[in-house]
Amino acid sequence: MIGLDRHAVSKNGSLLALQKTGEWKKIKIWIHQPRPTDVPYWRVILRGYEKPKYFLVHRLVLLAFVGPCPPGMETCHKDGNSLNNKLTNLRWDTPKSNTEDRRKHGRLKTPANKGSQNPHAQHTEEQVRQVRMLHKKGISKKQISRMTGIDHGRVVAWTWANTKEWPHVVV
Predict the structure, then answer these.
(1) Looking at residue 76, what DSSP letter applies?
(2) Helices assigned H by DSSP within 70-151
């Protein structure tokens, strides 16, 4: 791989590291989602250099099989699934084209597909309202999660003071 002589990536997004024994070993990757509102991506730390190097796997796949990212371009996932890092699903393209992909796959946040109107929504406005009302009453986020069966991370995201998740739901 370009500039990474101790590592290799496959067309399906698997990563390998060259061991001191001369054998290749599969590297663990994890989902990178810094905030609950962000799209998740597979991420990896490559070690064995001056400092560990952090990479998004989809960029490594394109770098290895297509070449460096052209100026003004970014990674696009053809099927809209940010966790599908097969070469056949990836391309370098413009931010405008990436936005069109998100619109086509229902991942572009617009007034028309906010909240439960979004085809990818897993919850309803009523659930968000209930979580916010319980939080307002002083019930802990962990308790709210247990009471409602809603993931703790979701509860935290919905109760941030300056949350951008479900802003149209008012308590």
Answers:
(1) E
(2) 95-104, 125-136, 141-148
Residues in Cβ contact with 47 at an 8 Å cutoff, skipping those fewer than 6 apart: 17, 53
Instruction: Please give the Cα distance from 111 to 124 (Å, whole number).
Output: 16
Its pTM stands at 0.58
**What digits encode the pLDDT tens for the residues 120-165?**
678 899 999 999 999 999 999 999 999 999 988 888 888 876 667 7
Identify which of 165, 53, 78 has the alpha carbon closest to the alpha carbon of residue 120: 165
Distances, alpha carbon 74 to alpha carbons 55, 58, 77, 94, 126, in Å:
14, 10, 10, 6, 37
What contacts 13, CB < 8 A, 6 or more positions away?
Answer: 42, 57, 58, 61, 84, 85, 86
